[in-house]
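[step 3/7] inverse_fold.run input=structure_tokens len=104
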């Protein structure tokens, strides 16, 4: 394969990778914890929103500690979803570029 053809293929693949990354970045991922907290996070791992159910009533300090733990759990679950999506969608590119000596 001549270098011009190879370069064009690499440029096309780079554009596809960038488009895939942008799609992931703009996607909103959601996770809930305990039916009380719902977290929405962009693919960039920026939190869009944290919603607490109207049913949540705090009477003691431990209730607020539990709420904090649920928020952390929902965020962590959302981050795992993002990482899994990135791995799934970008793995085809790493398989193609694996022998490229770290060009990407």
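[step 3/7] decode complete -> sequence:
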């Amino acid at each position: 394969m001549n270098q011009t053809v190879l370069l064009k293929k690499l440029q096309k693949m780079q554009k596809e990778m960038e488009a895939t990354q942008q799609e992931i970045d703009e996607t909103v991922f959601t996770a809930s914890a305990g039916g009380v907290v719902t977290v929405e996070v962009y693919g960039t791992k920026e939190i869009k929103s944290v919603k607490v159910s109207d049913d949540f009533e705090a009477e003691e300090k431990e209730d607020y500690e539990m709420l904090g733990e649920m928020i952390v759990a929902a965020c962590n679950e959302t981050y795992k979803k993002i990482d899994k999506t990135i791995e799934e969608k970008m793995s085809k590119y790493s398989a193609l570029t694996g022998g490229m000596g770290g060009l990407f």
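[step 4/7] annotate
The beta strands are 28-33, 37-42, 47-52.
Residues 22-91 form a domain with the Ybab; Chain: A; fold (CATH 3.30.1310.10).
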